[in-house]
Amino acid sequence: MSNVKIEVKDLNLYYGNFHALKNINFKAYPNTVSAFIGPSGCGKSTLLRVFNRMNDLIDGVKVFGKTHIDGENIYKKNIDVDELRKRIGMVFQKPNPFPKSIFENVAYGLRVNGISDKHYITEQVEKTLKDAALWDEVKDNLKKSALELSGGQQQRLCIARTLAIKPSIILMDEPASALDPISTAKIEDLIYELKKDYTIVIVTHNMQQAGRVSDYTAFFYLGELVEWNETKVIFTSPTDVKTQNYVTGRFG
To answer: Could you confirm whether domain 6-247 is CATH 3.40.190.10?
Structure first.
């Protein structure tokens, strides 16, 4: 695959004096799922937040190296960070629906972006709820508060809200870690479907999940990206002994 969606070269990130990411090199290709695995605190979520510049919101963060999305350096001086974040959706570990109706949760992003055409908004709410595999469960209750939904439904609603603003990349930070096994399976099925239209990067502690949903896997340890390859290679014949020890459960 020659067309690269995300490319990171020699990236280093510091929180104050703490060297959180060390010489990271990584690529993500269009219409693939990349999983970040590794022990807690090893830099997975920090790298995920590099792609939509969420680390900018933390005091004392310094980023060096290159991060390109669609060939564009997203850390160049005159980049519009709000526009960047529209192109890159983010789904968090804990579902975070707004205290509004199901309909308004999805419509919110459209309204914020200046869309007021009611017919268009209604169409998009239905489309994205269908894309998030939630429509059939909520279509008769769109005025109900999103907070009344189950955890798994809330997470799919948050995914629908993300899709409504038409991103090209979706970042997911442990999107199923707070969910029961049935809801987790629905999210995994959804990720598989969504990669037809999006590039997805997921942080997960669940190695079985990484094995099920991802095309590529990156193993992180102490701020370094130890190994990155096709998922089947990482799980069956990794080249680094640290990766091997982690995926076989010898440490983690």
So the answer is: no
